[in-house]
Amino acid sequence: MSDQALTSSRVVSLEAIAEQQSRGTERRRIWRRFKRYRPALVGLCVIGLLFILAVFAPLIAPYPPEEINTPLRGAGPSADHWLGNDDIGRDILSRIIYGSRIALIVGLGATAIAVTIGVTVGATAGYFGGRVDFLLSRLVDTLMSFPLLALLLTLSAVFGPSLRNVVVVIGLTVWASYARLVRAEVLSLRERDFILAARASGADDRRIIFRHIVPNALGPVIVIASLAIGSIIILESALSFLGLGVSRPTASWGTMLSDGREFIRNYPHIAIAPGIAITITVLSFNLIGDGLRDALDPRQRE
Fold first, then answer.
1. pTM attached to this predicted model
2. For residue 182, what are the contacts with CB-CB under 8 A and spacing of at least 6?
3. Closest to 302 in 3D by CA, of 60, 5, 34
């Protein structure tokens, strides 16, 4: 191998090492900013606990979620049943634990679908502009003009209640906000010097969009997505509450609220427990989103 080739190889290796070190430094800087917002750490701990409950539900739950104990119908909290029993005698704590699986699957799954579609549409519209931008922007505007809950109810009624349908329906109806955000970011990025340099080097449009533009536009998307997970959990609970979400007897916080609605005066604990679970989970994701917003803001000082 010639000296020139060896020198070129060393330069490439040094550039790769420098890039890795720069990324590591930036990640540590983001983590330090995130830790300064203590409520975000609390929210992160709560969501971490929720993941543990969801993954190890069969080991943690004291009873099977669908086990019926008729003599304990509507029974209040006790030493054996910490949160009491529901209207047909099922253990509420066990159903809350299993319901965390539904909340996380829907929240993360629907968000992943929405982000994927929104980023693709927004980046395409912002990068190409012209007629492509006009058509995609009108599509986004049309979708955002529909009342969200009414659209979800209609689609859920058409496709039927199931976990998969809930994830897909919500994901396909909430992506417009991501598309609009990414489009605005791409419009400000596409004329930057590093994009012009990529074009000059011969990179095709697809590589420029997904290699250079999208990674630089993901910061705001991550913040919005973390805040939106809580909203999606509320949407899933609303659909399940109305009987258009997860089918019974699967444990879902929304169906538990629906089951406790008729007994709210005599057995309020049936509805209170899932309501508190939804509130704590949504609040935790919102706190994490607030922390990420501060951590990913380049104007924040160390």
1. 0.86
2. 118, 119, 121, 122, 123, 126, 214, 217, 221
3. 34
The candidate with the shortest Cα–Cα distance to 274, out of 53, 45, 95, is 95
Closest by CA position to 47, among listed 107, 95, 93: 107
pLDDT per residue as tens digits for the range 94-145: 999 999 999 999 999 999 999 999 999 999 998 888 898 899 999 999 999 9
Q: How far apart are CA 60 and CA 49, in angstroms?
A: 12
What is d(CA 96, CA 238) in angstroms, rounded to the nearest whole number? 16
Q: How far apart are CA 163 and CA 57, in angstroms?
A: 18
At 132, is the secondary structure helix, strand, or coil? helix
Find the DSSP H helices in 129-162.
Answer: 130-145, 148-159
- How far apart, in whole angstroms, are the C-alpha atoms of residue 81 and residue 44? 28
DSSP state of 211: I
172-199 pLDDT tens trace = 999 999 999 999 888 888 777 777 777 7
Per-residue tokens: 260:
């406790």
Q: Name the percent of the chain in helix, strand, coil, to the closest 5.
A: 75, 0, 25
